[in-house]
TrEMBL record:
Family: Belongs to the RNase T2 family.
Lineage: Eukaryota, Viridiplantae, Streptophyta, Embryophyta, Tracheophyta
The keyword Nuclease is annotated on this UniProt entry: yes
One Gene Ontology biological process: RNA catabolic process
Name of the protein described by the UniProt record: Ribonuclease (RNase LC2)
Organism: Luffa aegyptiaca
Domain of life the protein comes from: Eukaryota
Catalytic site positions: 59, 108, 112
Keywords assigned: Disulfide bond, Endonuclease, Hydrolase, Lyase, Nuclease, Signal
GO molecular function: hydrolase activity; ribonuclease T2 activity; RNA binding
């Protein structure tokens, strides 16, 4: 009898460990993060290798579980799997700080992308980010709403409204504090775990103050 109970308990324990192990790999949506290079390049420890382009570039595509990024699931970046995409990635996903684009992709895959590998192999992951970039033209959307990057004060609420109107889904904005002022650093759009369907981002504690410079 005691042996049976022990056996049962062991099985339950093993199943729990298996379940939790699998569970820790999963994610429920993506953050598609675009950065504004002129802000990225402000107050870098090392100056950017060239003047930053005044257009949005991909920072990353981050698998999220609830409010948190799932990170460092695997370190198996394999450049050969994205060789057919490199020309496009050089344009939409450059490393604006060092110019080492491949190094940036490797970092982003190892830290973030690999956590979606159960559904997105490396080729598909990077292709998905390119597809999102084609869908989310932020400069164009902001321009349609009368917002241009003139380095003047912008209202967080207005910018969010404009993006909501253009894309039909709520973004969230991230800022960087330089001296006493906040500058727009990143705009995040959220996608379902299918990598295709845009959804509302949940308000995040890491966000911009009511006013910032863009
Ligand atoms: C770019 O980054 C990769 C990966 O970290 C590294 O192997 C390579 O040496 C770097 N290239 C340059 C030119 O620094
Ligand atoms: C990656 O996934 C795509 C789509 O499912 C598939 O066509 C392709 O063969 C996969 N590539 C590798 C290297 O497994």
């Amino acid at each position: 009898m005691a042996t049976k109970v022990l056996l049962l308990a062991t099985i339950v324990l093993l199943l729990t460990i298996l379940f939790l192990g699998a569970e820790s790999q999963t994610f429920d949506h993506f953050f598609f993060v675009q950065q504004w290079p002129p802000t990225t390049c402000q107050q870098q420890q090392k100056p950017c290798f060239q003047p930053p382009p005044a257009t949005f570039k991909i920072h990353g595509l981050w698998p999220q579980k609830g409010p948190n990024s799932v990170v460092y699931c695997n370190k198996n970046f394999d450049r050969t799997q994205i060789s057919s995409l490199e020309n496009q990635l050089d344009v939409v996903w450059p490393d604006v700080v060092t110019g080492n684009n491949t190094g940036f992709w490797e970092h982003e895959w190892n830290k973030h992308g690999s956590c979606s590998e159960s559904q997105f192999n490396q080729t598909l992951y990077f292709q998905t980010a390119i597809n999102m970039m084609n869908k989310v033209n932020l400069l164009k959307a902001l321009g349609k709403g009368g917002i241009t990057s003139d380095e003047r004060t912008k209202s967080s609420q207005t910018m969010q409204k404009v993006l909501l109107a253009q894309f039909g889904n709520q973004p969230f904005l991230r800022c960087k504090k330089v001296g006493q002022q906040f500058w727009l650093l990143e705009i995040v759009m959220c996608f379902k775990d299918d990598g295709v369907t845009m959804i509302n981002c949940q308000p995040s504690k890491v966000s911009c103050p009511p006013n910032f410079i863009f």
